[in-house]
């Protein structure tokens, strides 16, 4: 039912001239889904209050609740006489609904409350539907979806993840929000978060790391206190871009986190020297953006100045970890060997302040649409690195859109990582053997078969001439037979 609903939504969206790409589809579907989720949540709260003999005051005023404008009903069926459509519906959404919802941000006292999330979301996105008839069709489809059970949320979350993945494949901007889920799951298995520990992603995008960490920790036998800890005290994220923020909030809601602790802010504007113990976390999982060229004033927030965004994020993450905390960060593989001052200084700091126990070398094609190779750095805060264990991931095939990374590809890495075992694809490098002038951590597999030496240009030309002479002689022999 849910898959058919999402397919029908896509079919309807293609008919609206205001929606041009998968990014638009994801954004506009998100705000509609969010308001339907909010209506179901309010209905649940109202029922629970009635069972306890308490009064309940809805978050939204009557004219702005889903059942008032999106799906007014008579005898359980849509009342077409009162349901707005066409220009009337667009005028209401743009002129009344969105301005009303934006005001919630100003009245909220805590950015982690649902009221604040409502205001933040509707302050950052705009309604791109141009046709009220298209919007009416989408509203009627979404009205048939239910958020009242964990089973429904689980199925909806899978479909929403598929939409984010499609959006990521649609272009570079979309790809910023999608990290392959098998890679995320492997990173989580290695860091092994536990209930009671906090998990943080300061560049959370569509919240893939936080959602997968939630799936890793949730169990059917959790106590009420443990469930409350998962809901309110475990997952924290920050995201700079508006669309990614909306996607992240909605993604976490669909996975079962009622009021996600994601803040819409530029993480890099925080001075890392001001981070206090109360601001730190036990686990950091992230795939920070690279490139970017941050402004000089932003770079002043970091002891190691760099225009490379990923280097600033890495400094931030190192300082956001508590002593004994574990991190797993995706970064360009050139970080391991670049000779510029910032790269060398950052590698030195990482090795001296953290135990960087593992480097996972990812193959080309791991990130679809990205033209760079990446590695994953696994480290623990608070002790020096003595030895680095490398694993060179080789799935035995070319990765691409129709042949992506899967969980089986990473099973050997996860198994060997526990004991840092050596194999054809894994080896260890002691830090005391590194050059202290460069701290070069390049991936150089000593167990790989040596490649044959390349021929010199002179040898290549000589071989070509020899082959030409042989070919000419063969042709002469054939002519003699004729």
TrEMBL record:
<feature type="domain" description="N6 adenine-specific DNA methyltransferase N-terminal">
    <location>
        <begin position="12"/>
        <end position="137"/>
    </location>
</feature>
<dbReference type="InterPro" id="IPR051537">
    <property type="entry name" value="DNA_Adenine_Mtase"/>
</dbReference>
<keyword id="KW-0680">Restriction system</keyword>
<dbReference type="InterPro" id="IPR002052">
    <property type="entry name" value="DNA_methylase_N6_adenine_CS"/>
</dbReference>
<feature type="domain" description="DNA methylase adenine-specific">
    <location>
        <begin position="152"/>
        <end position="451"/>
    </location>
</feature>
<dbReference type="InterPro" id="IPR029063">
    <property type="entry name" value="SAM-dependent_MTases_sf"/>
</dbReference>
<dbReference type="InterPro" id="IPR003356">
    <property type="entry name" value="DNA_methylase_A-5"/>
</dbReference>
<dbReference type="InterPro" id="IPR038333">
    <property type="entry name" value="T1MK-like_N_sf"/>
</dbReference>
<keyword id="KW-0808">Transferase</keyword>
<keyword id="KW-0489">Methyltransferase</keyword>
<dbReference type="Pfam" id="PF12161">
    <property type="entry name" value="HsdM_N"/>
</dbReference>
<dbReference type="InterPro" id="IPR022749">
    <property type="entry name" value="D12N6_MeTrfase_N"/>
</dbReference>
<comment type="similarity">
    <text>Belongs to the N(4)/N(6)-methyltransferase family.</text>
</comment>
<keyword id="KW-0949">S-adenosyl-L-methionine</keyword>
<protein>
    <recommendedName>
        <fullName>site-specific DNA-methyltransferase (adenine-specific)</fullName>
        <ecNumber>2.1.1.72</ecNumber>
    </recommendedName>
</protein>
<dbReference type="Pfam" id="PF02384">
    <property type="entry name" value="N6_Mtase"/>
</dbReference>
